[in-house]
TrEMBL record:
Keyword tags: Lyase
Entry EC no(s): 4.2.1.96
InterPro entries (UniProt xref): PCD_sf (IPR036428), Pterin_deHydtase (IPR001533)
Protein name in UniProt: 4a-hydroxytetrahydrobiopterin dehydratase
Enzyme class, UniProt record, top EC level: lyase
GO cellular component: mitochondrion
Taxon lineage: Eukaryota, Viridiplantae, Streptophyta, Embryophyta, Tracheophyta
GO biological process, one term: tetrahydrobiopterin biosynthetic process
Catalytic activity: (4aS,6R)-4a-hydroxy-L-erythro-5,6,7,8-tetrahydrobiopterin = (6R)-L-erythro-6,7-dihydrobiopterin + H2O
Record-stated family: Belongs to the pterin-4-alpha-carbinolamine dehydratase family.
Length: 131
């Protein structure tokens, strides 16, 4: 699947595919930016030359943050594509997603991010710090 042809199928209707079947090079920034509207809460970051998706959440309690990560872990296993669970703080969590085998972003990363955003975890996360 070529990244120059970004399909219009919604990310959440897609499934991650094994990385070894993917194109050999990371998605370029223009292609990444066409997908960002479907994951509006995420940031596109350049980490020492590697483009990644990053998002943070405010959590209601430390252990709820950990519970959130466990739910994300279950999603990742079912998708066969895994986030970097960067941080569980006393009131916040941070996740980064990139395709390690490719050394950058592939559509898998956006599918996973979109599916994380669809998880029903409202009881674990604050919509805003004052919640
Ligand atoms: C074969 C299977 O696709 C690979 O082992 C997967 C597993 N999960 C993965 N997750 C991420 N983020 N990057 C990878 O390169 C990766 N490789």
């Amino acid at each position: 699947m070529s990244t120059s042809r970004i399909s219009l199928t919604r990310l959440t209707d897609k499934k991650c595919v094994p990385c070894n079947l993917k194109e050999l090079r990371p998605m370029n920034e223009d292609s990444a930016r066409t997908l960002m509207p479907q994951v509006p809460e995420w940031n596109l970051v350049n980490d020492a030359g590697i483009m990644k998706l990053r998002r943070s959440w405010t959590v209601k309690t430390f252990s709820k943050g950990l519970n959130f990560f466990k739910i994300v872990a279950g999603l990742a296993e079912s998708e066969g594509h895994h986030p970097d669970l960067h941080l569980v703080g006393w009131n916040n969590v941070v996740i980064e997603i990139w395709t390690h085998a490719i050394g950058g972003l592939t559509e898998n990363d956006f599918i996973l991010a979109a599916k994380i955003d669809k998880l029903d975890v409202v009881d674990l996360l604050r919509r805003k710090p004052s919640d």
